[in-house]
From TrEMBL:
EC number: 2.5.1.-
Binding site for substrate: 27-31, 39, 43, 71-73, 75, 77, 192, 198-200
Gene this chain is encoded by: uppS
Active-site residues, as the UniProt record annotates them: 26, 74
Known cofactor(s): Mg(2+)
Cofactor binding annotation: Binds 2 magnesium ions per subunit.
Identification of the protein by name: Isoprenyl transferase
Chain residues that bind Mg(2+): 26, 211
Length: 244
């Protein structure tokens, strides 16, 4: 696609392009089932779509992209699907490391890692270290992530700091510093594909003032053109953050 690179300006001349976009990538399984294919085919196609969106983001003015790959609730799916998803994650990290490093993408992961197998954890840590110096796009992948789980873990970390005397009167900034996303900007825009209109425990703290866009497009069909049109609509929104 020919990416739109001109700034989105409000009538007052303010650049309204979102710095950070977060996406709930929903609809992979349905996409496959609608075509009479196994659900894992949809997940593999969804992984290919991630690569296209990642490549398009810098030209669209997006500096931070966070994608919801696997939730704490997704363990309830069949063993076959869960194992297949973990295999897709391993292959994605293994085979995309070179391309991400070359294209200036910094890759990080959020979520509890202790339940993931050791090989996947090692691959995650390796690509995080390898891409740590990249600045063209910050890509964060949420694996075994749940917003409530993250907040509980953050509260436990903060309590430990209080016990050590590092914090006296805990505040919002102290809790934010204990989140998986410490140091990340909050998302400006959260997109959910597939027509569902719920947030599914995704970034509840960070997205407190984010704009939301729900699209009926299933994730494997979500193209950079779809993203560009949503960014255009975002530019028309009046974000007051509680003000007048």
């Amino acid at each position: 696609m020919a990416a739109e690179t001109a700034p989105l300006l409000t009538p007052g001349g303010v650049d309204q392009r979102p710095r950070h976009v977060a996406i709930i990538m929903d609809g992979n399984g349905r996409w496959a089932v609608e075509r009479g294919w196994p659900r894992l085919v949809g997940h593999r196609r969804g992984a290919e779509r991630v690569k296209q969106i990642v490549r398009a983001c810098p030209d669209l003015g997006v500096n931070w992209l966070t994608v919801y790959a696997f939730s704490t609730e997704n363990w309830k799916r069949s063993t076959e699907e869960v194992l297949g998803l973990m295999k897709i994650f391993r292959r994605y990290i293994q085979y995309e490391a070179e391309g991400m490093a070359a294209e200036g993408v910094r890759l990080r992961f959020i979520g509890g890692r202790e339940r993931l197998d050791g090989k996947l954890q090692a691959l995650m840590s390796s690509i995080e270290a390898r891409t740590a110096g990249n600045t063209r796009l910050n890509l964060t992948v949420a694996i075994n992530y749940g917003g409530r789980d993250e907040l509980a873990r953050a509260a436990a970390r903060m309590a430990q700091k209080v016990a050590r005397g590092e914090i006296t009167v805990p505040g919002e900034a102290d809790l934010a510093a204990c989140l998986d996303t410490a140091g990340h900007p909050d998302p400006d825009l959260v997109i959910r594909t597939s027509g569902e209109t719920r947030v599914s425990n995704f970034l509840p703290w960070q997205a407190a003032y984010a704009e939301y866009e729900f699209t009926p497009t299933l994730w494997p069909d979500f193209t950079p053109d779809h993203l560009a049109r949503i960014l255009d609509r975002f530019g028309m929104r009046d974000r007051r953050f509680g003000g007048v």
